[in-house]
Amino acid sequence: MRAMDHGGVGHPLIGSDAFVTDGGIETDLMLRRGVDLPHFAAFPLVETAAGRSTLREYYSGYAAIAAATGRPLMLESPTWRANPDWGLLLGYAVDDLARVNSRAIEFMTDLRREHADSIGRIRVSGTVGPRHDGYSAEQAPTSDDAFDYHRPQLAAFAAGHADLATAYTITHVEEAVGIVRAARAEHLAVAVSFTVDSDGRLLSGRSLADAIGEVDELAAPDHFLVNCAHPRHIRAAIGAEPGAWTRRIAGTRANAADAGHADLDEAVERGDGTPESFASAQAELLADLPHLSILGGCCGTDERHVAAMMRTIET
C-alpha cells in the first residue's frame, strides 16, 4: 500500500498541513464554463487537446490557492463517471475505460510536474464514483459485486502510480466495502467518502456513525470523507452521535447550497451559496472536526469558495 507522507491525512488542521483540493468540477464546467457534460461525466475531456486545456485551466485555480497559502495540493482525477454502467451510456466499452482511466492519471501526474516548483507537496488521487445513482438508495450492490465492478478502474489507477484512490458520493456500506477490498487487492491506498442528506443521515436512512463503523469493521479504508452535502448537514451527522469515530473523517467536500438532494439541482442552477456563506458554514463545521486535513468543495462550488474557506482558516 502506498502511504501518505508526513503532513498528509490524519494530521491536525494547523499551519500548512491541510491539503487543498478542488470544488464541484462538473457543476463548474457546465454552469460557469459552458462545457457540455452528458450524464454529468467529465472524464471524456482527457481524450482531446481542447478538453485537457479546459481541465488544466480548471485545476490551475486550485494550484494557485495551494501555492498562495503554502499548503499541499490534492489533485483528484475527473473520473467519477468512468465506470462500465455510465461509460456505456457515453459509448465507452471496457477497453475504452481502461484507456481513459489510465490517461486521466497520466494527465494528473503531468499537472503535478507542472506545479511542482510552486507547491511543495502534491498528491494524485484517482476518483471513483458509485455504480448507480449516488443520490438514490434504491440499488444496493453486494460487496462482492462492487469488488469485481470497481477493480478494473482501481487497477488502472494503481498501474499509473496514483498515490491513492478516493470513492466519492457513496450511499451504501456494501459498495464501500467492495471498493476498499478491490483497492487493497491492487495495493493502493484508498479513502471512502459518504454523502448525507439534510438530516445528516445517508440516503439509505443509516447514520454516518453506523456506516463508518461498519466499513471500518469489515474493510477499513485509510480514511473517510463526506461530500455532496452542505456543511450544516455534515454537522447534523456529527452532532447526532458525537464520538471518537469522527476522527476517522479526514476531509470534506461540501456543497455551496443548503439544500437536500431532492432540491439540489435547482439550488445549484440558481447559484445558491455565496463563497462567503460557504466559508462561514465550513468554519462552523471545523469547530466539530478540527483535525480535517483535506478541504475542497462539491456541487455549486468553485475556486472562489475554496479560496474563501482557506482565508477563513488563515484568520
From TrEMBL:
<keyword id="KW-0479">Metal-binding</keyword>
<feature type="binding site">
    <location>
        <position position="298"/>
    </location>
    <ligand>
        <name>Zn(2+)</name>
    </ligand>
</feature>
<dbReference type="GO" id="GO:0032259">
    <property type="term" value="P:methylation"/>
</dbReference>
<protein>
    <submittedName>
        <fullName>Homocysteine S-methyltransferase</fullName>
    </submittedName>
</protein>
<dbReference type="GO" id="GO:0008168">
    <property type="term" value="F:methyltransferase activity"/>
</dbReference>
<feature type="binding site">
    <location>
        <position position="299"/>
    </location>
    <ligand>
        <name>Zn(2+)</name>
    </ligand>
</feature>
<dbReference type="InterPro" id="IPR003726">
    <property type="entry name" value="HCY_dom"/>
</dbReference>
<keyword id="KW-0489">Methyltransferase</keyword>
<dbReference type="Pfam" id="PF02574">
    <property type="entry name" value="S-methyl_trans"/>
</dbReference>
<feature type="binding site">
    <location>
        <position position="228"/>
    </location>
    <ligand>
        <name>Zn(2+)</name>
    </ligand>
</feature>
<keyword id="KW-0862">Zinc</keyword>
<dbReference type="InterPro" id="IPR036589">
    <property type="entry name" value="HCY_dom_sf"/>
</dbReference>
<dbReference type="GO" id="GO:0046872">
    <property type="term" value="F:metal ion binding"/>
</dbReference>
<feature type="domain" description="Hcy-binding">
    <location>
        <begin position="7"/>
        <end position="313"/>
    </location>
</feature>
<keyword id="KW-0808">Transferase</keyword>
